[in-house]
Amino acid sequence: MGSGKMQFDVLYTRFSTPMQREESCKDQERNIHNGLKKLGIEYPNPLILHDMAESGTKAERALYAEIYEMIRCGQVRLLVVDDQARLSRGDTVMPIIRDLIYHGGRFISIQDHIDTTQKGWELKVKVMEFHNSTTVTELGHRVRRGQAGRVLDGHGSAGDIRFGYLSRFLDPNHAEQSRRGPKPKKEIVVYEVEAKWVVWIFERFGVDRWSIGAIARELNRLKVDKGRKATKPQWRAELVQRILQHTKYVGIWGWGATTTIRSSTGKKKQIPAEDDEVIKVIRPNLRIVPQALWDKAQARLNELHEIYGMKEGQKRRGPRVHHTEVYPASLCGGLLFCELCGARLVVQCSTGAKYLGCPNHRNGTCAMTYRPPMEVAEKALLGFLGEILCSWPEWLETALGSMRTSLTDLARRVPEEVAARRRRLEEVRRMKKNLLGAIEQGTLQVKVVVDRLHELEQEERHLEAEITESEEALKGPVEMPDETLVMAQLNDLAGLVRANNRKVPLLLRKILGRVVVHEMRMPGKKKGYGQLRFQIDGWAILEELLDGKLPHCVIQAGHREACSSPEFQVDLGGPTRMDQWAPKIHEMRRQGTGWLEICRITGLGLGAACTAHKRWHQAQRDGDTKPA
């Protein structure tokens, strides 16, 4: 603004928010001119600075910093404001005024009658500094009180309207009425245009088990409007996740979970509010998502949290379970493991083909050189499973027997369990009734009470579902399907596997678990072919076959650890003709057979026969004459 010894008479004005009149600065300037005229102060060429839409609680204001720099450089002769709060509403007014005086300047606040040339100015500045700073806190309390009142009156909102809702005037004729008088009341209602998409999101996630990212991509493809307040049209996974987690969609409206605090320079941050300041109200008329659908979505969110959530003591995010176990992108990707180091094989591309290689071999920490071609591994695995599922092995009979035992145990213990659950259900309903009565009388509205009520409602629904399921299980004679029916369904499952249906990748991870790749190297060779080694979980197969045909409690019980098959081995290739003939060629050479005769007998070329003999001879010298 200037340099050297030039001094300025600075007239500073400010208003706080864009909602205020821009003319406010002009009004303040007019008052300053009138006040200085009454004081008889001349200021021939004033520097007038208008700060628009800048909060007085913030120290990081461009014009405020510019004025302070001018003061430090001794360039301010006179600093005038309409009232001290225009300069700052913080606790930093006294230091800037002292610096102004130190550098030969003068401060005047017209409305507060403060003039630093008069005795006692320090007390006035300090009193106004304290008054202005506490006014901000008191204003925050009043705003919070008014917002809480709108939430507690049963239909209002505190500016927290989410996708699926809108606000409207309680009086539909408000538009034709005069704007004078108190601010008209509004109510929150379900906006059906958006509510149907909320239900769609919950169905895709909880029922169809779509990923959150897939839901966001589909919403973008369908060009679904994000709402009237959206600044960007694209849907993102974070927004979909917030919708799936928000309790407003089941009629539980919370408000005031955080409160604002400020630093000495006016920086703001949110911190958790006290429990008695947090409000939760139940609004069944604003429920969008049915409870059963909500429960499915929350169960799936908890499942994903167990997989992808933060580990105990963890500083940065890391999955507990590999993503391919939940969202497999291919049949074998993430399913195969290296036998030597235990690493999960990853997809690697070479000359247009896809392979599954050990990631530790490339960095030199694993000796596994074999990379099974993805197409070969998938075809071999599906072919073997298709054949084994069409048979009736002993380990599958063991799993069926375990389910029969579970059914017998169920018939014996369920009546006692149902009675105990009924007693607990009556107790939960009694506690819930007492809490509802206290809330209706207005004696209880604190967060802890409403949270407890929500817990009781969840336990009530859980107990009711368990009692219903158990009673259904015992309503009539529940019998295990005979082997003929199970075998017919096994054949259907085998057909599903052979066809490589979209459900097969998840099915394989359920019934196989961990498939280990073993490298088979013939004597004298550095590379060989692969072998898949795995067990089949017979209990998991029966779960897939009998789901919906037996009570859920029967399928979930039992001794599944005893129902696994022996280890199977599936070869991905085999010894070459050279490998098969190598020991015989070596023996023929010992007997003096000529190379031309050897080539005639084996059908190999001379070079191939010599190489096979050389490998076998070297393997004998090294003591490596058995396949590895």
Total domain units: 4
Kindly name the structural category: alpha/beta
- How are the strands of the biggest sheet laid out side by side? 2-1-3-4-5
Distance between the termini: 84 Å
Number of strands: 17
Number of H- or I-type helical stretches: 20
Beta-strand portion reads 5-15%
Low-confidence stretches: none
Gyration radius, to the nearest Å?
39 Å
The helix content is 40-55%
Major sheet summary line: 5 strands, mixed
What global shape is seen? elongated
Mean pLDDT across every amino acid position? 78
Question: Summed up, what is this model?
Answer:
This protein has 628 residues and is α/β, with parallel strands linked by helices. The protein has 20 helices and 17 strands. 48% of the residues lie in helices and 13% in strands.
Structural write-up:
It is a single chain. The chain has 628 residues and is an alpha/beta fold. The protein folds into 4 domains: 8-133, Resolvase, N-terminal catalytic domain (Rossmann fold); 165-174 and 184-308, Putative Large Serine Recombinase, Chain B, Domain 2 (Hect, E3 ligase catalytic domain fold, Alpha-Beta Complex); 336-392 and 484-572, no CATH class; 577-622. The protein has helices spanning 23-39, 62-72, 84-87, 93-102, 121-152, 192-207, 212-221, 237-245, 291-308, 359-362, 374-389, 394-440, 447-475, 483-498, 504-511, 538-546, 552-556, 577-590, 595-602, 606-622, and strands at residues 8-14, 47-51, 76-81, 106-109, 114-115, 165-169, 186-190, 252-255, 258-262, 268-272, 279-282, 336-338, 346-350, 353-357, 515-520, 529-534, 568-572. The strands form 6 sheets. A 5-stranded mixed beta sheet has the order 2-1-3-4-5, with helices on both faces. Strands 12-15-16-17 form a 4-stranded mixed beta sheet, covered by helices on one side. Strand 4 and strand 5 form a beta hairpin. 23% of the residues are buried. The model has no long low-confidence stretch (mean pLDDT 78).
